[in-house]
Specification:
Elements (H helix, E strand, L loop, with lengths): L2 H43 L2 H15 L13 H34 L7 E5 L2 E7 H4 L9 H14 L5 E8 L14 H19 L6 E5 L12 H7 L1 E8 L5
Parallel strand pairs: 3-4
Antiparallel strand pairs: 1-2, 2-5, 3-5
Helix pairs in contact: 1-2, 5-6
Amino acid sequence: MSADDEAGLDDDMEEAEAPSEWLTTLADMSMLLMSFFIMLFSMSSLDVKKFTDSFTSVRNALGNQAKSATSSPISTPELSTLVEQARLKQRIIGEQRRVYDQFRSYVSTKGLEGVVAATLESGKITIAFPSGVLFPKDGVDLTEEGKARLRTLYDFLIRTAGERINIRGFTDDQPPAAGSRFRDNWEVSSLRAVAVLRYMVSLGMPPNRLTATGLADLEPLYPNNTPEHRARNQRVEFVLERFIGGE
């Protein structure tokens, strides 16, 4: 056999062998994905027997690869705890979705559309007011318009007794003007958050439901490169988290 024939044969062998490597990897990945989705399906119904059966099936399917990760069997009490935690998490997320939908309807009936924004992510509801709606420019004392807006929000929040509320103040990246009585943006954002908290308490909100945090120019919504973006980054947020035992 000539050298050219041998080279051609080697090329053919390489081409024949190459696909088997990625096909094996693809098959392993497919098995893992299938096992993962089977487990997700069983957990969605939160049935202990399904969860146990699925966990065993996945462990058997993975074989030796799973021995190190599953060498210690899960006891029945531990499994029950995992299932209960998953059930509680699902319940909280479902209740937060209901509160979020109610708030969106409330906003539309109270004429707050375009004034207040709300998002729901990982069970947390965030309600945001631009600082200009609540405070005068460069000020930390609530305006009368701001108080009116907060009274409207209070009427909704007082009915959500199962929510703890973190009031978070934000500024843009511009420091207080020269000669200002405020040392920096940390002080401005903190004083605004505390002013909102105190006003909500004065309306009747239980103090143990509220906390206040000043975050200065951290977590901007937009790059601080235009006056419009800076105005949007100056805001007060209400972060609602449902606590265990809340109604």
